[in-house]
Specification:
By secondary structure, this protein is of the alpha+beta class. The chain contains 2 helices and 12 strands; from the N terminus they run αβββββββββαβββ. The chain has helices at residues 2-50, 162-165, and strands at 51-55, 70-74, 88-93, 96-107, 112-116, 119-122, 125-126, 140-143, 148-152, 168-169, 173-182, 188-189. The strands form 2 sheets. Strands 1, 2, 3, 4, 9, 10, 11 and 12 form an 8-stranded antiparallel beta sheet that branches. A 4-stranded antiparallel beta sheet has the order 7-6-5-8, with no helix packed on it. A hairpin with a 5-residue loop joins β11 (173-182) and β12 (188-189).
């Protein structure tokens, strides 16, 4: 009888140890999942702090951008610098800040912008604009206020932009559009020019 009990105890001891190991394994899996979720959340917040993703809606930026494309926006671009001529930017629409628009910078604070004879001039100098769909069919002249930007769509004759509703306050700017990431066949950097492109 004693021998049988000893053998029985010898058999049950590993089972108790296995149960503890199982509990420890479950705890480890739960901990790993929580750690992964926490790191993912932190990464998501960090990415959102420095960038945004927007969907192009409409034809105002053709041929540079097309409706349905998704674009990455650098939200830090103008925290360490200033917008430049012909930058493609995303901003809150001044007449309805809930909406976000994407356009090209044409005039900087203090500039005189004019359109006549199908040409855009900044401070009297004609812009060389190989990126536009067609020359503007309208004519007018504007002064860009301090702390504002003057923006046009590349599809000049089919764009709601500064020529119809005025300039954009600098603090309405979300950031600089830098990369098309969807659809995959359209992947690529968005073309910006370093100067005013004067002829």
């Amino acid at each position: 009888m004693d021998q049988d009990l000893e053998e029985y105890r010898t058999e049950t001891y590993p089972e108790g140890q296995s149960h503890e190991e199982t509990r420890s394994g479950v705890k480890r899996v739960v901990f790993d999942i929580l750690e992964t979720l926490l790191l993912s959340a932190l990464l998501f917040l960090a990415i959102n702090a420095i960038s945004a993703r927007i969907r192009v809606d409409g034809h105002s930026m053709e041929p540079t951008l097309h409706t349905g494309q998704f674009v990455v926006v650098n939200k830090l671009a103008y925290r360490f610098g200033s917008p430049g001529y012909e930058d493609v930017i995303v901003f809150h629409f001044p007449r309805d800040p809930e909406q976000e628009y994407i356009k090209r910078v044409i005039g900087l604070p203090g500039d005189n912008v004019s359109v006549s004879g199908g040409q855009v001039k900044v401070n009297g100098q004609v812009l060389d604009e190989p990126y536009i769909l067609s020359s503007p069919a309208y004519e007018n002249e504007w002064e860009v206020p301090e702390d504002h930007l003057f923006v046009f769509g590349d599809n000049r004759n089919n764009s709601s932009d500064s020529h119809t509703w005025g300039s954009v306050p600098m603090d309405y700017v979300v950031g600089k559009a830098v990369f098309i990431y969807w659809p995959p066949q359209d992947w690529g950097m968005i073309e910006h020019t370093a100067s005013a492109g004067v002829k």
